């Protein structure tokens, strides 16, 4: 190739997007998709919340303008959502700065760019494994990414001593990326005692916690899913929280997210705010309005908020029921019952994942991550039966 683009090398296709295409092209009527990370109801649909539909109806009828909101987006949305994520006390703190972002991914990117601007080349510690987009997204801002041990496949649980041993090498000013709840891809969550230990360690070492909260309400409930990292935020002078409304409001394609930073003082918060606005301006200028306006409408109306919480609780209950059913279906799957959220990481080799796809029309990510909500109570038995020979052979 010649010309201006001659220096480009081809990128490998995204594995998850390729999996979506393979599943769509498979004519087998009994195929099972536990790969794509979207919630599905018993009929296999990803529904629009009734509360969202009503909020949209009101917006269509009442919205008087489509003018820009500014780089901070819908400030009312960010303030209302902060009470859900951080609680009323911290949400009102003058040390807290929030703004709307295009999805949780936009929040992660903006937070990482802020931290890279504050101290160029600083190190961010990321647990292994983590969401596939974390490391390239963070490294793309100039942060130095280092891994620490996190998940023990032998116990299907957090290896907290190993994690803390690795983090012992972190230097003051380093960043620790933490999943707020319902870890993707493993489904594990820190206990309150572990959050407290992390808070003490991070505060003593002068580290900065960067929490990714993408699944609040889909683990143990809205308040319970936030309790752990709130312990952390109460004990550190500085922190960053990236939030996604994709799952808990069902607003996947509307790209609704928020970023909050906790600064040491109100004065430093003003400086952080000016930098966030400048970075948002050069990244996307103004965030999209519709999805955030939907969330704000729901949170502002007591009846709509109650409806949303009831729908979210029903989703959470369905996922928990599927987890228990899958855990009871095979001894090697028992740990899934004590995990939370949409995802679990099965002890399967890539070759076994490919064989399950070819022989049984079961589609999952190559590392063995499954979306629990992709199952139905009627498919658990067939799913477990197909897994059995691979689990018996050690993966």
Structural features:
395 residues; 13 strands; 14 helices; 7-stranded mixed beta sheet; two-stranded parallel ribbon; alpha/beta; 2 domains; Aspartate Aminotransferase, domain 1; 14% strand; globular
What layout of secondary structure does this protein have?
Layout: H1 15-25, E1 32-33, H2 50-62, H3 75-86, H4 88-91, E2 96-102, H5 103-118, E3 123-128, H6 134-139, E4 144-149, E5 151-152, E6 157-158, H7 160-167, E7 175-179, H8 192-205, E8 208-213, H9 222-233, E9 239-244, E10 256-262, H10 266-283, H11 290-300, H12 302-329, E11 343-345, H13 350-360, E12 362-363, E13 369-371, H14 380-392
Parallel strand pairs: 1-12, 3-4, 3-7, 7-8, 8-9
Antiparallel strand pairs: 2-10, 5-6, 9-10, 11-13
Helix pairs in contact: 2-11, 2-12, 3-11, 5-10, 8-9, 11-12
How would you describe this protein?
By secondary structure, the protein is an alpha/beta fold. The chain has 2 domains: 15-48 and 305-392, Alpha-Beta Complex (Aspartate Aminotransferase, domain 1); 68-300, Type I PLP-dependent aspartate aminotransferase-like (Major domain) (Aspartate Aminotransferase, domain 2, 3-Layer(aba) Sandwich). Helix content is 45%, strand content 14%. The protein has 14 helices and 13 strands. The chain has helices spanning 15-25, 50-62, 75-86, 88-91, 103-118, 134-139, 160-167, 192-205, 222-233, 266-283, 290-300, 302-329, 350-360, 380-392; strands at 32-33, 96-102, 123-128, 144-149, 151-152, 157-158, 175-179, 208-213, 239-244, 256-262, 343-345, 362-363, 369-371. It has a 7-stranded mixed sheet, with helices on both faces. A two-stranded parallel sheet has the order 1-12. A two-stranded antiparallel ribbon has the order 5-6. Helix 6 (134-139) links the parallel strand 3 (123-128) and strand 4 (144-149). Helix 2 runs antiparallel to helix 12.
């Amino acid at each position: 190739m010649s010309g201006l683009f001659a220096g480009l090398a081809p990128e490998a296709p995204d594995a998850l997007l390729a999996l979506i295409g393979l599943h769509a092209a498979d004519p087998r009527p009994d195929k099972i998709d536990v790969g794509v990370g979207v919630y599905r109801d018993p009929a296999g649909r990803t529904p629009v919340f009734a509360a969202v539909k009503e909020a949209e109806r009101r917006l269509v009828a009442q919205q008087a303008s489509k003018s820009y909101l500014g780089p901070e987006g819908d400030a009312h949305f960010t303030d209302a959502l902060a009470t859900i994520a951080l609680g009323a006390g911290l949400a009102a703190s003058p040390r807290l700065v929030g703004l709307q972002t295009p999805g949780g991914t936009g929040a992660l990117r903006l937070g990482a760019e802020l931290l890279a601007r504050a101290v160029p080349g600083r190190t961010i510690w990321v647990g292994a494994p983590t969401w596939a987009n974390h490391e390239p997204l963070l490294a793309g801002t100039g942060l130095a990414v280092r891994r620490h041990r996190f998940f023990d496949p032998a116990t299907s649980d957090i290896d907290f001593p190993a994690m803390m041993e690795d983090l012992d090498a972190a230097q003051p000013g380093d960043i620790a990326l933490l999943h707020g709840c319902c870890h993707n891809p493993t489904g594990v969550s820190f206990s309150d005692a572990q959050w407290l230990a992390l808070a003490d360690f991070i505060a003593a070492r002068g580290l900065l916690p960067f929490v990714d909260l993408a699944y609040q309400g889909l683990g143990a409930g809205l308040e319970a899913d936030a309790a752990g990292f709130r312990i952390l935020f109460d004990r550190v002078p500085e922190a960053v929280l990236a939030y996604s409304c994709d799952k808990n409001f069902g607003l996947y394609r509307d790209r609704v997210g928020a970023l909050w930073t906790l600064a040491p003082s109100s004065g430093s918060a003003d400086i952080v705010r000016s930098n966030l606005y400048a970075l948002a301006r050069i990244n996307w200028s103004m965030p999209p309005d519709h999805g955030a306006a939907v969330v704000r409408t729901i949170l502002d109306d007591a009846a709509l908020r109650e409806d949303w919480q009831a729908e979210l609780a029903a989703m959470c209950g369905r996922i928990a029921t599927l987890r228990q059913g899958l855990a009871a279906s095979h001894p090697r799957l028992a740990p899934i019952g004590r995990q939370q959220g949409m995802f679990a990481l099965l002890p399967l080799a890539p070759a076994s994942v490919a064989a399950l796809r070819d022989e049984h029309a079961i589609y999952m990510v190559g590392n063995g991550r499954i979306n629990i909500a992709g199952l139905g109570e009627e498919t658990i038995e067939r799913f477990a039966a197909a897994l059995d020979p691979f689990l018996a052979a050690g993966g």
